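S1.2 Input.
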Amino acid sequence: MRGDKEIDEVIDISTKLFELIPKTVGTLTFDENEHLIDTSGVGRELKKTHIQDIFKKANEGLGKVGYFTFYDDHHGLTHVFKRHDGKTTVIYTDDKKEE
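S1.3 Output.
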């Protein structure tokens, strides 16, 4: 069972990602056991099957580098990071050109 401190740290990281990565529109965070532990932005709107598909695709592409980017038809450019603490963070960014 996760403690409040760990949950607060995950939420804090998601909040910082919105500030640090331009055009971030949503995030998903998975723990080391592949359980979804945090969502933000468009990540909150995703259906369970879509989240599972994204996680599977991300794990296939991560490899040894710990970073993977792909285009998702529904939510645009998707970045996946395997963190040093074993958690995986998925970041959706708006890939639309500004007019």
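S1.4 Remarks. The CA atoms of residues 30 and 36 lie 4 Å apart.
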